[in-house]
Design goal:
Blueprint: E1 2-13, E2 16-28, E3 32-38, H1 44-51, E4 59-64, E5 67-68, H2 74-84, E6 85-88, H3 100-110, H4 115-128, H5 144-157, E7 162-166, H6 174-187, E8 192-197, H7 200-206, E9 209-214, E10 217-221, H8 244-256, H9 259-298, E11 303-306, E12 308-310, H10 312-321, H11 341-344, E13 345-347, H12 352-359, E14 366-372, E15 378-382, E16 388-392, H13 415-419, E17 420-425, E18 434-438, H14 446-452, H15 462-467, E19 469-472, H16 475-478, E20 479-482, E21 485-488, H17 492-497, E22 502-512, H18 517-520, E23 524-527, H19 529-539, H20 543-550, E24 554-555, H21 563-566, E25 582-587, H22 590-604, H23 618-662, H24 664-672, H25 677-718, H26 728-745, H27 747-754, H28 758-763
Parallel strand pairs: 3-8, 3-9, 6-7, 7-8, 18-22, 21-24
Antiparallel strand pairs: 1-2, 1-4, 4-5, 9-10, 11-25, 12-13, 14-25, 15-16, 15-19, 17-22, 18-23, 19-22, 20-21
The structure holds adenosine-5'-diphosphate and magnesium ion.
C-alpha cells in the first residue's frame, strides 16, 4: 500500500533553508478520499509531489506495495507516475497545442497503449466527465470548469489507483467547484484520492478523512489507519516508453502553432542545402557534358604500345615525393637528386608472342589495329625534269609514320571511315600503296611533295598527286656485293626501271573528321598493310640482311646513309623487320576500350617486371585530368556552401533552445504523466528532425527550381542545353545531411530539456 515514513524535505535558496516537510508519517488506505488541509506554504503541494513521485524526499521512506522506494531509480519513478498516479492540478496543466482527446490519451500514449484502446479509454473518461461533445477542441476553447474536467478525465483515463489533486477547484467559482467535487467523489469510490484544499467546508462535505498540516507538519488526522487494519491489494506498475512517432506527433502539432517561424527557420537553414545542391547539379551536369564530349572525340583515340614508354604513374609519384625541400632556399649549398629518368622509362619487348596475343583480341571490341614497322622503304621518284631521285620514307616529312589501321571486322565502318573523310581516290588495303593524309587546311609539308617528285609548288591538284608514280627498290637490287663489301647501286634510272621494283601510287587522300581533330591532326603518308607485308616478305632472304645477321659484313654507302650510320644499320632500315615498333589499337567505343585494356593487362599477369608490356591510354589520361579539375572546383564550392550549413545548424540549436524554454510547462506535464527524461529528449529531437527534414526538402525544391533559370543562362552563354541536373542520389543525401545536422544542432537544447526538474517545470507559466 502507500505509506509515508518520517519524510523530510527541505529547499535551499542561497543560504536559506526552507523545511517544507518535517518528519511526516502517514499511512493511506487503498480506497479512501483524503483531504489535506492547511494554510498556504504549509507543505501540502510538496507532500503531494513526493507521493506522486514528481519530487524526491530528503530522508525517511515512501512505501509502495510494501516496498521501500529508497532504491528507486528515475525509471522506476517514471513508471510509477505513469501507471499508479493521476494528477489533477489547480491550473489544469493541459497541453495547449493538442486537442482534448489527445490530451486525455497522452498518459496512455506514453505507456505505449495501442491507439485503439487508448481512444476507447479516453472517450470513456471524457464521457464520464461529460465532455464527449468537445473532444476535438483545443484546451483554450473551453471554460475553466471544462478544462478541469479534461484534467480529471486525463487523470482517470489510464485507470490509476491513486488520484492526486492539488486544489482542483482553486480557480473555479462555487457552482463549478461543487460539480467538480461531485465528480471527484464519484472517482473516490474505488480509488485512493488525495486532495489538497484550503477550503475546510469542501473537505468536510466530501472527504472520508481529513489531515491537517501546519508548517510542514501533520497536526491532525481524522481517520488514521489502525495497526490492526490489513490490506493486501497491490498497485500495478507497468513500463513506459514514448515512441518516436508520438514524439513526432507532439512536435508536429507544436510546430503547427508557429508555422511562420518554422518556415523562416527552415528556409534560412535550407540556404546551405540550396548552395550545395546547385553546385552539385552544375558540376554533375558539366561532368556529363565533358564526358560526352570526350567520349565522342576521344573514343576513337588508340591505345598505344611503343617500344619505349615513359611511365606516367612513376613520373607523377616522383613529382609528389620530392616536396620535402624548401623552395628558393637562402643556404649556400646544393642538394643532390637521384636521376630517376632511367627507371621511369620502360622498354616494351614487343615479341611475336605478343603480336600473336593481340591477334586474339575479340574483334567485336575493335575498329582497327595499326602496326607501325621500322621498315624504311627505299624509294625512287621521277620528277617533272625527268630526274631520278633516291628518297627514303624518312624524308617523307611526317614524324609519326603510321600504317593505316586495318579493319579486322571487314565492316564498311572501319576506323578509317570513322576518323577520316576520304576526299580523293579510294583505299584498297589489299593493294600495296600509299595514302596521303592532309591536315584540316589541306596542307602537306614540302618534303612530302619532294618525296613524290613534285617540287617548288605552292598548290598541287589531287590529280597530280595521284598520278605520280614511285618505285620501291628491294635491298638486293640496291646493295651490290663485291667480296665482303656491299655498296649502293648508283644507277637510279635502271633501278627505277628494274622489273623487281614495285610501283606504288597514292591511292587516296584522307583528312581527319572535324570532330576527331584532336587525334587525327597532322599530315604525311601512311602505307597499306599489303605494302608493308610485301616489302617485308621480299627483303626477308636478301643477301644483305643475311650478311648483316651473320655480322661479318661491311657496307659502303653514300646517300642516303652516311658513313657513321652505316654501322648502325638495323634490319628495320633494311626493310625486313617483322616486329612492329609501335602498335595502335583502335577500340570500337569507350566500353570496348576497357575490355581491351583488361585483355592487355591480363598479358602482364605473372610476368617479370622487364617483360611487362605497358600501353598508353591517352584518352583516359585526358579525361581523368579534366575530371580531377572539375572535382577540385566542386570541392571548393561545396566547402563554401557548407559554412552556411554549419551556421544554420547553430541557428537551429538556438531556436530549439528557445522552444525548450517555451515548452517548459509541457515538459512538466509530460513528466507528471510519466514521461521519462529520455522521452522529453525525443520530443525535441523530433522537433529538430522535422525542421531538418522541412529545410532539406525545401532546399532541394528551391535548388531544383533554380536549375531552370540557371540552365537558361548557361544555354545563352554556351549553347549547352540542360547542363544543371540535380541527381536523385545527391538530393536524398543532402536531405539526410540536413536532418542529421539539425538534429545535432538540437542535441544540447534537447538535453537541457530532458534534465529539467519536473516540479519546477510545472511551476513555470
Ligand atoms: P503549499 O502547497 O502548502 O502552499 P508548498 O508545499 O508549495 O506549500 O511549499 C511549502 C514551503 O516550501 C513553502 O514555504 C514554499 O515557499 C517552499 N517551497 C516549495 N517549493 C520550493 C522550491 N522549489 N524552492 C524553494 N522553496 C520551496
Ligand atoms: Mg500548494
Amino acid at each position: 500500500m502507500l505509506e509515508l515514513k518520517q519524510i523530510k524535505k527541505s529547499y535551499k535558496t542561497g543560504t536559506f533553508v526552507q523545511h517544507a516537510l518535517k518528519d511526516v508519517s502517514i499511512k493511506f488506505r487503498k480506497n479512501e478520499f483524503v483531504a489535506i488541509l492547511g494554510a498556504s506554504g504549509s507543505g501540502k503541494t510538496t507532500l503531494l509531489n513526493i507521493i506522486g513521485g514528481l519530487d524526491r524526499y530528503d530522508s525517511g521512506d515512501l512505501i509502495i506495495n510494501n516496498t521501500s522506494t529508497k532504491k528507486y531509480k528515475n525509471i522506476n519513478w517514471d513508471r510509477y507516475r505513469n501507471n499508479c498516479i493521476g494528477f489533477i492540478f489547480q491550473n489544469y496543466n493541459l497541453i495547449s497545442h493538442i486537442n482534448i482527446l489527445d490530451n486525455v490519451e497522452m498518459g496512455m500514449t506514453l505507456s505505449g497503449v495501442s491507439s485503439k484502446t487508448r481512444r476507447r479509454k479516453a472517450k470513456d473518461a471524457l464521457k464520464k466527465v461529460g465532455l464527449i461533445d468537445h473532444i476535438h477542441k483545443k484546451p483554450n476553447q473551453l471554460s475553466g470548469g471544462q478544462m478541469q474536467r479534461v484534467a480529471i478525465a486525463r487523470a482517470l483515463a489510464n485507470n490509476p489507483d491513486i488520484i492526486l489533486a492539488d486544489e482542483p477547484t482553486g480557480a473555479l467559482d462555487t457552482k463549478t467547484s461543487i460539480q467538480i467535487m461531485e465528480l471527484i467523489k464519484e472517482i473516490a469510490k474505488d480509488k485512493l484520492v488525495i486532495m489538497v484544499t484550503h477550503n475546510p467546508e469542501l473537505a468536510k462535505e466530501y472527504a472520508t478523512r481529513i489531515i491537517e498540516f501546519k508548517d510542514g507538519e501533520k497536526i491532525s488526522d481524522s481517520n488514521p489507519v489502525e495497526e490492526t487494519e490489513k490490506e493486501n491489494k497491490e498497485f500495478k506498475i507497468k513500463k513506459t516508453a514514448m515512441s518516436f512517432s508520438t514524439a513526432l506527433k507532439l512536435s508536429f502539432n507544436n510546430i503547427k502553432t508557429k508555422k511562420g517561424r518554422t518556415l523562416l527557420t527552415s528556409f534560412a537553414s535550407s540556404i546551405g542545402i540550396i548552395g550545395i545542391a546547385l553546385v552539385l547539379s552544375l558540376s554533375n551536369g558539366f561532368k556529363i557534358e565533358i564526358d560526352n564530349f570526350e567520349k565522342k572525340s576521344l573514343a576513337q583515340a588508340p591505345i598505344t604500345i611503343t617500344q619505349q614508354t615513359v611511365q606516367m604513374d612513376k613520373m607523377i609519384e616522383e613529382q609528389t615525393n620530392s616536396k620535402e625541400l624548401k623552395k628558393y632556399p637562402d643556404e649556400k649549398r646544393l642538394f643532390v637528386q637521384e636521376d630517376k629518368m632511367e627507371s621511369m622509362m620502360h622498354i616494351n619487348k614487343i615479341t611475336e608472342d605478343y603480336t600473336n596475343y593481340l591477334k586474339k583480341i575479340n574483334i567485336k571490341y575493335l575498329s582497327g589495329i595499326a602496326y607501325e614497322r621500322g621498315t624504311n622503304l627505299l624509294l625512287i621518284n621521277k620528277d617533272d625534269q625527268n630526274n631520278y631521285n633516291l628518297v627514303t620514307t624518312m624524308n617523307m616529312g611526317i614524324s609519326s609514320w603510321t600504317l593505316l589501321p586495318s579493319n579486322p571486322n571487314q565492316e564498311k565502318e572501319g576506323v578509317v571511315e570513322k576518323l577520316y573523310d576520304v576526299i580523293a581516290g579510294e583505299i584498297n588495303e589489299n593493294e600495296p600503296g600509299l595514302i596521303l593524309q592532309v591536315d584540316s587546311k589541306n596542307q602537306i609539308y614540302d618534303t612530302v611533295l619532294e618525296t613524290l617528285g613534285i617540287q617548288n609548288k605552292e598548290t598541287v591538284t589531287f590529280e597530280e598527286i595521284m598520278n605520280q608514280e614511285l618505285k620501291v627498290i628491294l635491298n638486293d637490287d640496291y646493295y651490290l656485293q663485291k667480296g665482303e663489301f656491299f655498296y649502293p647501286n648508283q644507277d637510279l634510272k635502271s633501278l627505277y626501271n628494274n622489273k623487281n621494283s614495285i610501283t606504288i601510287k597514292v591511292q587516296a587522300i584522307i583528312r581527319g573528321k572535324e570532330e576527331h581533330e584532336i587525334i587525327t591532326n597532322g599530315n604525311g603518308f601512311a602505307y597499306t598493310n599489303a605494302l608493308t607485308e610485301l616489302i617485308v616478305e621480299k627483303n626477308k632472304n636478301s643477301k644483305i640482311v643475311t650478311a648483316q645477321m651473320g655480322k661479318d659484313y661491311n657496307i659502303l654507302t653514300q646517300s642516303p646513309f652516311d658513313e657513321t650510320m652505316t654501322k648502325e644499320l638495323t634490319l628495320g632500315y633494311l626493310g625486313a623487320d617483322t616486329i612492329p615498333v609501335a602498335i595502335y589499337i583502335y577500340p570500337k567505343d569507350f566500353d570496348s576500350k576497357e575490355k581491351i585494356t583488361d585483355y592487355l593487362d591480363k598479358y602482364n599477369e605473372n610476368k617479370e617486371a622487364e617483360d611487362v608490356i605497358k600501353y598508353t591510354d591517352m584518352a583516359s589520361m585526358i579525361s581523368s585530368l579534366s575530371g580531377n579539375i572539375m572535382d577540385a572546383v566542386t570541392v571548393v564550392l561545396i566547402a563554401f556552401s557548407s559554412i552556411s550549413l554549419i551556421v544554420s545548424s547553430i541557428m537551429i540549436g538556438i531556436i530549439t533552445y528557445i522552444s525548450v524554454l517555451e515548452r517548459t510547462k509541457e515538459i512538466g506535464i509530460l513528466r507528471a504523466l510519466g514521461a521519462r527524461s529520455k522521452d522529453i529528449k525525443r520530443v525535441f529531437t523530433a522537433e529538430t528532425f522535422i525542421i531538418g527534414l522541412v529545410s532539406g526538402i525545401l532546399g532541394i525544391v528551391v535548388a531544383y527550381l533554380l536549375t531552370i533559370p540557371a540552365n537558361q543562362i548557361i544555354e545563352n552563354l554556351s549553347g549547352l542545353a540542360n547542363v544543371a541536373k540535380l541527381n536523385i542520389v545527391h538530393a536524398t543525401t543532402l536531405i539526410i545531411i540536413s536532418v542529421v545536422l539539425t538534429v545535432i544542432g538540437g542535441l544540447i537544447p534537447s538535453r537541457v530539456a530532458s534534465k529539467k526538474d519536473p516540479v519546477e517545470a510545472l511551476r513555470t507559466e
